[in-house]
Amino acid sequence: MLTSHAANLDQLAIAPSGKAVGRRALTEGQTTLDLLASASLAVVLLPVLLYFEIRLPVAVPLSILLALTGQHLLRATFNSGRLDVFSPLTLVAGYFALYFAIRSLYLCTVPFLARLGRNPYDDYLPAALWCACVGYLSFLAGFGSKTAKSWKRHLPVATHQLLPVLPVSRLLLLILLGLGSLAYLFKIGAAVGNYGNLEFQRNPPPGVVVLLENLLDLSWVVICVYLVVPSKKLRRWETWSLLGISLGILGLKLAISGGKVALIQPLMEAGIVIHYGKRRFRLWEALILGVPSLMLAFGAVNFYRFVVVGRSGSPKTLSEIVSRISSAATMLNSNQVARAQPSALEQMVDRNAGTDALALIMKYTPHPFPYALGRPWLQIPMTFVPRQIWKNKPINIPSAEFEATYMGLPSNYNGFSSMQLIGDLYRNFSWAGALGGMFFLGALLRLFYLFCSPSRANTAGLFLYAALFPEVIHSLESDAGYAVINVSRIAALAIVVAIFLGARFRRFSRGTIYSSLYDRHGYL
Fold first, then answer.
1. What is the CA radius of gyration of the chain?
2. Contact at 8 Å (CB) between 119 and 406?
3. Which class for 221: exposed (0-12), middle (13-18), buried (19 or more C-beta within 10 A)?
4. What are phi and psi of 4, to 5 degrees?
5. Which class for 482: exposed (0-12), middle (13-18), buried (19 or more C-beta within 10 A)?
């Protein structure tokens, strides 16, 4: 009898129902329609690109990449009720569209647009675009594969959500720890205007302190979750008070760091919490909110960082920070921005140089620079050893190495140029690295999406997704080693914070799941 019940259970758990078969057929039909739509869009775009005098070797892969990424973004625009604006699929499509397709359009149509570094690479733009097309298709294949679902069976699930009552004392403790770390880093010189100092890079601050500074952002996400998903026992004045404190500290962090991420990341985290916890954003709504934020980051923040601090020097005290902010406000009001720096759009286009970095790597690898064959990745485990234990731990700065080799810049230059993840994959294992790495990335992001399952009812997953997803997207600009190190550290800290705030995770064995199904369907 038990064997019969087990057979019935296997059939229930494994065999698809009629609705599942229908959904699978619908999905397969949608995939076919997507491919046909992309092909049609590419055929339409090709003569348009040729009309604007873009060379055929560039126009063909460019039209394909625009069609692949644009087709998904168009679906998100006109069918936003069923598509998730903040899903990995949508934001990776936006990344390839901006960093490769739109950047290539600018390179081909805007005369005298600044190139990346000193070494020429325009003859390898077609190859870089083909690599981007294949890499994006590989990412889609990994994201749509069953690999993530099979991996998910081995991961724990959230059995308890964040505490139903706002944990004011615990949040204040996290904020104080983050603020103390920020104050320490500021005291030793980790401030705007000092990051490019090679001497500072050779003697970096303790990694634990740098990691704990992220508690400010994690606390911000938690407060947003409690505001968007309130409980009956929530006292809103406490939440709004903590929100004001958090905003003030994040503003101080922005003034100290002078980084665009310090502005964009909290806004993106809040948007993700609202999107999954309260109401879904449509793509046009996300653009209306996101584009001005990017313009503000590349305009006002860059003006403060490169013009005001560049002239007055890095601030060393709070009074100097106030003075730099006051100077920036005065100069902005006097319309000196246009004379002092390029427009925000020009700066954003210069920053999004994904095609350039990939073309440089493809042209100069393996001659004169041989394939890395994963050797830089062997140093990843060493980075987790604290410098207090390993005094002479080697310092690896991949961006500086990229600038001194591929970009042909002086060895004392450190501009934190972005190598791009797909470029680093090609630098290590050529086309196989780009294809395999992007497939793995697609499966990994699908696993992350399934594990978090952010929603109003799943506050633990909502917190983890909002806290980690901006870091994941930002890591697409970096090399694979930095991406693994940074995301894994932040992920570990975020999980610890979630547990500290009441969430609990448990891994269920197959037998436990079967027992649950037995109880649910009346077999026992």
1. 25
2. yes
3. buried
4. -65, -40
5. buried
pLDDT in tens, 166-197: 899 999 999 999 999 999 999 888 887 666 56
For residue 160, list its beta bridge partners: 504
CA of residue 333 relative to chain centroid, distance: 33
State the burial class of residue 251 (Cβ atoms within 10 Å of its Cβ: 0-12, 13-18, 19+).
Answer: middle
Find the distance separating the first CA and the last CA of the chain, reported in whole Å: 11
Question: HSE (CB half, 13 Å, CA atoms) of 442?
Answer: 22
Cβ-count burial 143-153 (b if 16+ within 10 Å, e if not): beeebbeeeee
Give me the phi and psi of 342, to 5 degrees please.
-65, 170
The encoded tokens of residue 160 equal 């308890």
- In this prediction, residues 364-369 reach a mean pLDDT of 92
Nearest alpha carbon to residue 426 among 138, 142, 144? 138
Per the structure block, which two tokens stand in for 243? 């929100």
Residue 100 tokens read as 């490769």
Give the amino acid at 372: A
Confidence of residue 272 (pLDDT cuts 50, 70, 90): very high
Gap between the Cα atoms of 410 and 118, Å rounded: 10
Treating both helix axes as pointing N-terminal to C-terminal, what angle do 125-144 and 88-96 enclose, rounded to 10 degrees?
170
Residues 6 or more apart whose Cβ sits within 8 Å of residue 190: 200, 205
CA distance 148 to 246: 35
